[in-house]
Amino acid sequence: MKKIIFTVLLITINLSINSQEIFGKWNSKNDETGQVDSVIEVYKKDGKAFAKIIEITNPERKNALCELCNGKNKDKPILGLNILTGLEKDDDEWSGGKILDPRSGKIYKCYIKLETSNKLKIRGYMGFSLLGKTAYWERAE
């Protein structure tokens, strides 16, 4: 009986710890409609955080290209596109990286921070973080 209780306790602690991570799948909502328009996967590579679009909910946009992007992302499919690159952990947030807005093709400095286990704050900015925009992603199920 003690083994079962101990195992259940370990699983619960493990799930609780894992839910406190930024890594995983997140729903991104359209600012205008409030509807989920894409699913983003945040992952870790070489100690840094990255994210890519893994699902587009609008069937008409599934094959959309990043027409307004410059450089290597110009005319690449938005589905599968890396939009967060090179964020490093700094206390309770991840910063020092960049975020790409596929709708405008613009790249911004950014930081992300876990607000709750199911809510991720993303702040994109130019220059100083006071001059920017904040979005919130909700954890996908």
UniProtKB/TrEMBL annotation:
Taxonomic source organism: Polaribacter ponticola
Classification via PANTHER family: BLL5882 PROTEIN (PTHR36919:SF3), BLR1215 PROTEIN (PTHR36919)
Pfam families referenced in this protein's UniProt entry, alphabetically: DUF2147
Top-level taxon in the UniProt lineage: Bacteria
Xref: InterPro entries: DUF2147
This protein's name: DUF2147 domain-containing protein
Gene3D superfamilies documented for this protein: 2.40.128.520
Domain DUF2147: 24-139
